[in-house]
Amino acid sequence: MDLKKFVLEGNPVCRKEAVIVGDHFRITMLTTALIRFEYSEDGGFEDRATQMVCNRDFPVPEFRVSDSGEELHIYTKDLEIHYDRQKFSPSGLMIRVAGGKASERVWHYGDEPKDLLGTARTLDEADGEIPLSHGIMSRNGFSVLDDSHTMAMGEDGMVEPRQGNRADFYFFGYGHRYVECLQDFYRLCGKTPLLPRYTFGNWWSRYHKYTETEYKELVERFEKEEVPFSVAVVDMDWHLVEDVPPVYGSGWTGYTWNKKFFPNPPEFMDWLHKHGYKITLNVHPADGVRAYEEAYPRVAEKMGIDPASKEPVLFDMTDPKFIETYFEELHHPMEEEGVDFWWLDWQQGTVTKVPGLDPLWMLNHYHYLDSKWKGKRALTFSRYAGPGSHRYPVGFSGDTFITWESLKFQPYFTANASNIGFGWWSHDIGGHMFGYRDDELTARWVQLGVFSPMNRLHSTDNPFNGKEPWKYNQIVETVMKNFLKLRHKLVPYLYTMNRRASRAGLPLVQPMYYLEPEREETYEVPNNYYFGTEMMVSPITDKLDPVTGLAGAKTWIPQGIWYDFFNGRAYKGGRKVDLWRDIYEMPVLVREGSIIPLKDMEGYDNSIENPEKLEVLVYPGESGEFVLWEDGGDTPEDLDENWVSTRMTKTADENGTVFIVEAAQGNTAVIPQKRSWKIRFCNIQDKPQEVTVNGQVYKDAEFAEDEKIHGTIVLLKDVPADAQVKVTFAADAAVYQRDYAEEVYEILEKAQITYAQKTEVYKVVKELGTEAVPVLVSMNLNPSLLGVLMEILTMGI
């Protein structure tokens, strides 16, 4: 095996013109706001890539140096740096960041950053909030990432200890330009890779002793129930566990299929593939390879051990020979049989033979890069191992407790991880262990999962703990099925955001303060986040109020008009509100003018390939544009020639509304040559004036009323991929007019209050409309009921 494939991509050597150097210090001006500082008593500096940093080849920024001989002063448009040329100290190195309050924008060496935090290694055994590590965004305008203690990356693909006791850190002084800060972090530490398309469907996972027969029956039940999944996770009992002879210790680590459970593994995996599933197996590699393993003889011989000795092959990711053997003799054969990627369930600490080297980082790095060997897109599934881990998606967040407290923490935890560039967390949706049975909790967790980077249902090995929808009451079963179908509908949108994350350095999930950093309210809604370019999500993490049957979520609605994804309700932005929903929905708002491409899931279809039938949501607003990006879904490289783009635009003015789907551009061979379109226009209640394909009137168009979003549906069948579709509405097309009283009636009808109070409230709303708010406030109503009435009557639309 050529270990050079494990060398990080990038250019770790900076440009000479960006360097200010002395006998013991080196300062590298990467941007006007990103600076590298090194101090070395021996006068040596690090030019190799490190575990965190792989590229320092930035264009030289504008900066000015004033050197008195005793003190060094450096100025950029963003920073002023004052340094006494001595060993770094609080009095000797000071940086002032432009903008903001002067007292808050000054940093002295050694000051603990007051940043917005990042993420954590794991949520194992978490029952609610846990401490987070540092990120790169700060309300004070600066943060610091220390790279002094990571390993260097050698030219042979192996890690190498640093030389000497040297200081090496990066100062981020971007003020509140959070997005720019994050994009430069990706430039420094490596971009977020492109994920395979299948990762965006639903994942099924359970710690359970499945047999092949039981797993197949489960998949067939999912198909019968029309519940789509794209990834089959098989936990550790795929290999020998209980039948391991005691002399070899536990069966926690294993590489030999349990033939009692899976008599023909290649046939089993081929069966799953034919049913539309990709396969990942759980592996705990810490105990190495012992003599009972089927692979032991060839592994031992390759490692120079006499197989007759039965001496164990110890796990050691610092040994190039072991790395080669580990992949070529253990993992590659099973990948040839059908394993698509590996779940690295490392729980054995942070110690290796090389002091300071984390074995989890080694596993993530080597597994991810090795996974390209079959010509497919790289993928691994493992816990977070520090800054730079975004290069090895997907993240496994660990074994959480099944409690409301765990659910309440996860939206914030997920969004906040973007502050250290980690955009692809996969949680145990529904929780893993302990806790309690609460059907409503499961429904809300699944809703969060659908609007998360990954949606992987999971549970521990307990006969009462499973996430099959039919195990829950009928209401929650319906909710789970509807949302799991919705996740597969969202794949075209999510895959486009996948490309955006990789190409533009913009994670799918972003905290609200990224786009409005000067609004205090955006910092007050930690569970509220952007979900791609078009949506904003506020997961519900509290139980339903027994009086109204609703639960609320604190939400900041940005400026402009926003529309509810599920019911089309319009909201005026620029304010913080509580959004109330019953168990069937959650607050997901869509910005005005948005265009959202979905897979048309009418009828069961488990495939996550580029769909033949597309559903497009079109929202009111003067203009909007969305470019749908598609490729083969699992091609090895992120190359332009693999892609096809389909541009969709909407314009609205005094002459009417026009929606256009342009002809697909690029490698059209990767998409269906003909497509059916279901175009849903929110709030437009007339039929189109005209529908054309390539300029010719399309006479076979069908129309329907869209009751969900109070609009019109336009149906077109078998449209060539290289054709333009144009839908035109007249200027006087009827627009949905909201009836406040009707919406209030629907709330009151279900409310568990006296009939007299229902009548009184309804009368006030009928008489006063939106002016009823002061009266309602004075009526001593249930807080939940008053909250939802405020939401309806104060939308501003």
From TrEMBL:
Top-level enzyme category: hydrolase
Pfam families for the chain: DUF5110, Glyco_hydro_31_2nd, Glyco_hydro_31_3rd
Ranges of residues in domain DUF5110: 614-683
Keywords assigned: Glycosidase, Hydrolase
GO molecular function terms noted in the UniProt entry: alpha-D-xyloside xylohydrolase
GO BP terms in the entry: carbohydrate metabolic process
Domain Glycosyl hydrolase family 31 C-terminal positions: 505-596
Family to which the UniProt record says this protein belongs: Belongs to the glycosyl hydrolase 31 family.
Official protein name in the record: Alpha-xylosidase
Name of the gene: yicI_1
